[in-house]
Amino acid sequence: MKNSAIKIAYFAGSMKPGHDGVTRVLYKLIETLNERNIENIFFSPIIPQDSAQPTKMFEIPSVVFPLYKDYRFPVALQKSFESRLAEFKPDILHINSPCPLGFAAVKYGLRHNIPVVATYHTHFASYAKYYKVKALESVSWSYFRMIYNSCDQVFVPSKPILEELRNHGLTNLKYIPHGVDTDVFNPKFYSDEWRNKNDLNCKTILLFAGRLVWEKDLATLAEAYKILNEKRKDIKFVLAGDGPIRNELQALMPGALFLGYLSGRELSTAFASSDIFVFPSTTETFGNVTLEAMASGIPPICAREGGAYGVIEENKTGLIANPRDARDLAMKIEKLVDNPALRKAIAKNSFEYAKEQSWEKIFNKLFESYGEVIQRHKIYNQYRSKTYCRSYNQLCFRRSIHA
Q1: What is the pTM for the complete model shown?
Q2: Which CATH number fits domain 187-355: 3.40.50.2000, 3.30.565.10, 3.50.30.50, 3.40.50.720?
Q3: Cα–Cα distance, 61 to 43 (Å, whole number)
Q4: How far is 333 from 329, CA to CA, in rounded Å?
Q5: How is 4-53 classified by DSSP, letter by letter?
Q6: Of 117, 121, 166, 290, which residue is least crowded by CB atoms under 10 Å?
Q7: Taking Cα atoms as reference points, which of 157, 124, 147, 109 lies closest to residue 10?
Q8: For 158-201, what is each residue's pLDDT tens digit?
Q9: How far apart are CA 207 and CA 293, in angstroms?
Q10: Quick one: residue 49, left, alpha or beta (phi over 0 = left, psi -120 to 50 = alpha)?
């Protein structure tokens, strides 16, 4: 089956443009789907107005999610998408969140004998320590095993996360990283004007970019700021992004520059005009911003936990700090601040690495995988009864949903 002949139905927790790293990946995917004339349809509890939709999108009924008010909890799932799917007749379903919508899509695929794949975008199990709900972690892993092991394939964007998922009993995993657009993130966007405007020209700029939420380990960043701010006047912490803890974080980092939410040329300029990218998060499945920093020609420092450090080769394409260790993070920052030659060498290496991570290459792998999954499913159906589940785990899952 040629890519252009495949019909794909996608399910996502949010399709609000720029909402988070997941939506940024999905909108890049939509661009490629449309360029290649691949029929697609998206279901989500959060979608933009009709005039802003780059493809067919359908809103799923939802309510506000108490723990995360920027997201919504889907309800009335079966009625909200089954008729649309029946009309669309997809060849494959792709879930991008393990939320109830993704769960319902997996059930639909099993009932209607349609292959289902997933991308492991969000590391929800790691959020437990930030919300101080200990039981959440074990419950999350049990739920993940149920939903993801019922899929024909699970795409994982970083090797550290791939290994962690295997250790927790997830199967059918395939490594497909994310890419970066080097026309958007590139050293060519460096701007002395931007540095002067923000009174940064005599400083070494330490950039963080991302949502301002505690699960990005921003308490560690704030503590590293405190350690360095007391003894150095030649550095400046700059944060690009917004979120529910912005006011609290500004109180902890009073001398830092908070730029708020940036996109487009403004974001490209902030990356390229900074000197070091500092990203302490331990909860990423990939960390698009790490690769965007590398493509912008600035060396990254990431924590050795989660997926953000997966693209870093220590002392070659970046530095890796101990997770949740502000003193070690501060030491790694000073290592690059005080060694311009090392900083320059890492920036060059990381830029060369990023140039090879084009979205075209990444999506080629994804579309090839779709074809492989669909073909395996067809072969399976030639030798198995349609009432026989695709694996022992799916058999258990099928029994549970029909109970």
Answers
A1: 0.87
A2: 3.40.50.2000
A3: 10
A4: 6
A5: GG-EEEEE-S---TTSSHHHHHHHHHHHHHHHTT-EEEEEESS---GGG-
A6: 166
A7: 109
A8: 999 999 999 999 999 999 999 999 999 999 999 999 999 999 98
A9: 9
A10: beta
